[in-house]
Amino acid sequence: MLTADRFTGIFKALDASPWNAATGRGGKRQAGIRRGVATPLYTPEERRRRDATPWTLVQGILAPVQFLVFLVSLGLVLNYLTTGEGYVAATISIIAKTAILYLIMVTGSIWEKVVFGRWLFAPAFFWEDVFSMLVLALHTAYLLVLVLGIGDGRGQMMLALAAYAAYVVNAAQFLMKLRAARREETGWRGGDAGQMT
Known about the structure:
Elements: H1 4-14, H2 28-35, H3 44-52, H4 54-83, H5 87-116, H6 126-148, H7 153-196
Helix pairs in contact: 3-5, 4-5, 4-7, 5-6, 6-7
């Protein structure tokens, strides 16, 4: 059975960094995951790094930009599928959406390295990253089909819609994680305030 522990074990084995403890990958967090104990999304040090890095702002800007491009592109794709018109505009919009996806994936990996000490598959964002790989694969498959001239315009647009459906699920994952982080921070600040009084 494919579990987060097995994936984490595979990627841990591939990661040759000898500084596991310094990058937040050892000890209590991993033990908490194995025992099924709820662990905070960010340790205090990870939260500090998250708030200090400019990559957090980059992600905060790129995510809504990508969503806006997605909405425009989705409209153009659906227009083409219903009317047969506007293939070029729809194609350009899908390429633009894919380019932004690549950009957000690269900058997101940098953000994850700065905050969690790993390029991808940090325990806090493990399943989001796994699903991001599917989203990336589907968008890349669209580009390959387009460049190689495989299938007709309708088939290409259907592949783009599959990529977009995966993107919506992945975006929902990240929004839920962001919401959880905000709830956690509110509780954390409230807990601090309670301790100070």
